[in-house]
Amino acid sequence: MSVRFNPFDEGFRRDPYPVYAALRTSDPVHRSFLDAWVVTRHADVRFVLKDRRFGVDPIPERIAERHRLLAAKGQSLEALLSASRRFFFFLDPPEHTRLRRLVQSLFTPVAVQKMLPIIAGYVDRLVDDLEGRTSFDLIDDFAAPLPVTVIAAMLGVKGYDLRELKSWSLDLSRVLDPLVSLDEYRHMDDIVRGFEAIFRDVFAARGRHAEDDVTSALLAGAAEHNDLTERDLAAICTVLFITGEETTVNLIGNGMLALQRHPEARAKLQADPSLAESAIEELLRFESPVQLTTRVAHEDVEIAGVRVSAGDKVVVGLGAANRDPEVFDAPDELRLDRRPNPHMAFGDGIHYCLGAALARAQGRLAIPKLLARFPTLRLDLDAPLQWRRNIVVRGLSELRASV
Length: 403
Fold this sequence. Notes:
alpha+beta, 12 strands, five-stranded mixed beta sheet, 17 helices, single chain
């Protein structure tokens, strides 16, 4: 029987790895019913992400079509359309290079290293808040508040409801998915307008008094780019907010789930917290927060002997590449001391995740601290896990825990 790649299937959402394994073996450059190629081998995934003959999925064009449709009815997606044209993951060079350069120095490992005491303080505060409780939602009460608090502090966002901003970020991340309803796009447009209002206030405050934060640095760098409007800069801050929050919450949630399902690995990490660095890399590989991304061929290209025509879409299986037995020994085993570990959880090439170092730092601090403070913590796996509807991003909407 031929393998069918269907990311909308509930079984696939629960466990995509058997499908990935079958595709890698029998049909590694698979023609999907979604009118796109699907690549699942590590070598092919890396090839597509690094080869400049492939560009990003032009989702802003899709939003523009919906905008024109609504405009005929006196409605609009104007804010979402404008912002999406400044989101890094929808841009090719040279515009991608120019805009990313404005902020990339602020998210390097060296820059994030300076943030560690602040991140550790937020982790301690969240763990303290859980003290004395017999049960809680690991996602809503720990994994989600941490990154939204960190990225809000880095961007100078103060005095706003962080739970609402977390919800906005979660809903806006759906912009990456291939099939989004018109109502969802309308909701995203409202969210973008909300972020624009917040960042107008932040920009005004930084105009009066610059501080040591990402927004002040962005405004200083943007002074050399006369074509960037306040709305453009708000879009850049918005995409930093999304990417700064999304990967980390899923790293913590997916990672804790993997450790619950592999008690020997969990016990090993609890006994030796110095394993945190390699453990986080293995958790990123084993249950990748971002599973898929899409590229479009700019010209005819051959992938592993299969001809891909100019204009064809290619769905790139990051989660599949991270379980490739040609690269990883016993890939379905969780080995917290795995080295080397050339996983692709953060992608590759020019679109390598800008927030990778920040996500790693939060994971290394958060997961060991949680295990140390609550050594008997157990996740409730009796009820079916609630995986989020997102196709590109893999994460849980809820994860009940007891201590």
